[in-house]
Amino acid sequence: MTPASPPPKGFFVDRSVGRLKAPALLRAAGIELRTLAEVYGIPADESVTDLEWLELAGSRGWPVLMKDARIRRNPAERAALVQHGVQAFCLTNGNILAAAMAEEFLAAMDRIVEVCHAESPCLYAVSGGNLRRIDLS
Fold first, then answer.
1. What is the pLDDT of residues 25-82, one digit of tens each?
2. What is the model's pTM?
3. What are all long-range contacts of 131-135, with beta carbons under 8 Å and residues at least 24 apart?
4. Are 69 and 127 in contact (CB under 8 A)?
5. Which long-range contacts does 2-6 make (Cβ < 8 Å, 24+ apart)?
6. In this structure, what is the dihedral angle of CA atoms 49, 55, 24, 9, given to the nearest 10 degrees?
7. pLDDT category of residue 8 using cuts at 50, 70 and 90
8. Are 57 and 48 in contact (CB under 8 A)?
9. How far is CA 28 from the centre of its chain?
């Protein structure tokens, strides 16, 4: 499923989603994105902290697709998300393979795009084609 109105600057994909397989599947479906490895280079991407890439994603206006749910419980990362106006969409199942990750994001993509045009900062859980807003306070 391709969104009718894509995010203005495409998505940023965190390392938790992977460098190759899931991003390739999302691109094949027409989703514009860049991965952590593409932005920072390999192997530098392995040492970039979540706080660093959250700041970059926010400053560039890149909504984030991720699988790392720790951001929900990490006060510093939540604060960075808010401070930098990041829009983040996190898969709820951390134990799925690339094809399933891509399917989950694509099933929810129309709603993700709606949120991207309407709300910032935000954090949403993605599951079964649905979004659930996570309180950032």
1. 999 999 999 999 999 999 999 999 999 999 999 999 999 999 977 888 899 999 999 9
2. 0.92
3. 131/89, 134/72, 134/90
4. no
5. 2/29, 2/30, 2/31, 2/109, 3/31, 3/109, 3/110, 3/112, 3/113, 4/110, 4/113, 5/113, 5/117, 6/30, 6/31, 6/32, 6/113
6. -170
7. low
8. no
9. 17
What type of residue is 118? A
**What is the distance between the alpha carbons of residues 11 and 49, in angstroms, rounded to a whole number?**
18
Tens digit of pLDDT for each residue in 12-24?
Answer: 999 999 999 999 9
Q: CA 18, CA 105: separation in Å to the nearest integer?
A: 14
Spatial CA neighbour of 18 closest among 54, 61, 66, 70: 66
Block residue for tokens 């996190």: 90
**Strands across the sheet with 11-13, in order?**
33-35, 11-13, 64-66, 87-91, 122-127, 130-133
Reading the block at residue 72, the tokens are 């929900």
